[in-house]
Amino acid sequence: MFPSVKEAERILKESEDINPGIWGNHCRVVAHCAGKIAEACGMDSEKAYVLGLLHDIGRRFGIRHLGHVSDGYSYMMSLGYDEAARICLTHSFNGIKVEEYFGNFDTTDEELELIKNALAGAVTDDYDRLIQLCDSMAGSERVLCLEERMGDVKRRYGSYPQKKWDANFKLKEYFEEKSGRNIYEIVEKESFRIKKI
Ligand SMILES: [Fe+2]
Q1: Separation of CA 98 and ligand 1 centre (Å)
Q2: What's the gap in Å between 146 CA and the centre of ligand 1?
Q3: What is the pLDDT of residues 73-84, one digit of tens each?
Q4: How many angstroms separate the alpha carbon of residue 24 from the centre of ligand 1?
Q5: For residue 80, what are the CA distances in angstroms to 1, 6, 71, 156?
Q6: Among 143, 162, 176, 178, which is 20 to 30 Å from 113 by CA?
């Protein structure tokens, strides 16, 4: 289950009012990319768009690292949106293991346990892979190339796991093969800009 585009947009806007920041527009860039790539691959573009909009919805509850994963998962589950909840979880782990999280482990023991159990039971598909890819190329106003976006994270954190770097390029290849097109062309990288609201 996942909400309509209209409802997802409402939830995002409300969440931004609670915790303002550039994260909301980053979600809109992810949604744009996911919708476009899904359409080019014959997937459900509306579903991809909604899952993109909500992947970081845990930020509604404040500035946290791994905590935003469990916050987003629990929030979406509380609304009955299990597919959006799964994406809140899986977008941060290319290999679907909590140990692969790149950032601060700032969760309580209960939250970490929740993430581990939910990940262990998660059955992932191309929507999980799609949001992972889009998250790796979405800035807060526009689409970036993978090197640019991951390089920015590398600068901020001081390093970037090579395995994760390689996995994201593999995802790009995967969706290029599936669509038969260049990913940056599909997402209109050069021309797409977030509309100021
Ligand atoms: Fe994100």
Answers
A1: 16
A2: 13
A3: 999 999 999 999
A4: 9
A5: 7, 16, 14, 35
A6: 162
Token output for 86: 């799964």
Token look-up 């768009």 returns 49
- Tokens 């509850």 -> residue: 61
Distance 21 CA to ligand 1 centre (A): 13
Contact 37, 175 (CB under 8 A): yes
Overall fold of domain 5-186: Hypothetical protein af1432 (1.10.3210)
Using CA atoms of 79, 84, 89, 91 in order, give the dihedral in degrees to the nearest 10. Answer: -150
183 φ/ψ angles, rounded to the nearest 5 degrees: -60, -45
Q: On the CB side of 192, how many CA atoms lie within 13 Å of its CA?
A: 24
- Tell me the pLDDT tens digit for each residue of 23-37: 999 999 999 999 999
The helix (H) or strand (E) run that includes residue 39 is helix 23-40
pLDDT at 69: 95
How far, in Å, is the centroid of ligand 1 from the Cα of 172?
A: 16
CA of 131 to the centre of ligand 1 (A): 8
Distances (CA, A) of 170 to 11, 90, 130, 162: 32, 17, 11, 12
